[in-house]
Amino acid sequence: MIKKSLFIAGLAASLLAGDIKMDLNAKYGANNFHTKGAQEFAALVKNYSKGSIDITVHAGSSLIKGNPLKAVKDGTVAMTDMFIPFTSGGGKVFGISALPFIAQSYDDAFRLYQISKPAYEKTARKWNQKLLYSVTWPPSGFYSNKKMSSIDDFKGAKTRTYDKNSAAFVNSAGGNAVALPWGEVYSSLRTGMVDSVVTSSASGKDGKFWEVLDNFTKINYAYPLQAVTINLDYWNSLDKSQQKAMLKAAKEIEKTQWEASKIEDKVALETLVENGLKVDEASNELKAELDKIANALLSEYLDGANSQIKKIFEEYRK
């Protein structure tokens, strides 16, 4: 209660000063395209609100070390971005975008996001926050020391995965999923604790994976989402014109960032190749084998899902 009271007092002081200053925690470094998008969003908000809202973006998750949903809920930070599938508290809903091989293109991923958005918004409200916008990562692929040509190539692989879905996929394919914080992945590849990673071209570029691995197989595993939310107390403190300005900025940045993700994927793949890492397309044989695993995992996922989630996939499959 004391923490909440201090938070409200600080917010009131900001309002009395005639404007609102907010901090936005960005999970990744300053050069990551999601962080750059957050910085562009902050600039748009300042412009559209005629300077009455001033958002400072803090890269590298410097403001939050734990659960981002809880940090925004409690007012530890006014705003944050978060990797939706990995965010504790989001439950099954937040895992939708990382289900294996459901979306096979950016268009598929955007359509699935639009259908799922009300469910994401509902979950955010339960955590005392408003979802402002979400942007996909480039499609996740498989980094290893060899091209993954068939399901047999996954057997025995020690693979860093990023959520329950990707862990279930690797284990089902015959590998061994390993949960690691991103900051420990590179060193774990160096020491052999893991020998492969499920992640995007962008993350492989940022992580300089060509120094520790030889191959990236484009299996198009998933198009997981990164979202930006704001604490509801802060949101409700804004007047109508300020809320309108923030929503306008969010809509604009969401559109441009989805395009930026496509560009980032292209640039990242080129960077991987330029630095000696071989990039391969997944064979039709491998795709067929992976689809079998994906169908089994989706059935298992839906068996324990509520009606809202089931309706999402009924709509998506139309």
General shape: globular
Largest sheet: 6 strands, mixed
**CATH fold group of the largest domain:** D-Maltodextrin-Binding Protein, domain 2
Strand content: 15-25%
pLDDT < 50 stretches: none
CATH class of the largest domain: Alpha Beta
End-to-end span in angstroms? Answer: 48 Å
Q: Let me know the number of strands.
A: 11
Structural key phrases:
single chain, 318 residues, alpha/beta, D-Maltodextrin-Binding Protein, domain 2, 2 domains, five-stranded mixed sheet, 11 helices, 48% helix, 18% strand, globular
Question: Can you characterise this structure?
Answer:
The protein has helices at 2-16, 33-48, 68-74, 106-126, 164-172, 185-191, 201-206, 232-237, 240-274, 284-303, 307-316, and strands at 20-25, 53-58, 79-83, 129-136, 140-144, 158-161, 176-179, 196-200, 215-218, 225-231, 278-281. It is α/β, with parallel strands linked by helices. The protein has two domains: 2-138 and 223-267, D-Maltodextrin-Binding Protein, domain 2 (3-Layer(aba) Sandwich), CATH 3.40.190; 140-222 and 278-316, D-Maltodextrin-Binding Protein, domain 2. The protein has a six-stranded mixed beta sheet with strand order 7-6-8-5-9-11, sandwiched between helices. A five-stranded mixed beta sheet has the order 2-1-3-10-4, with helices on both faces. Helix 4 runs antiparallel to helix 11 (307-316). The longest helix is centred in the C-terminal third of the chain and has 35 residues, at 240-274. 43% of the residues are buried. The mean pLDDT is 92.
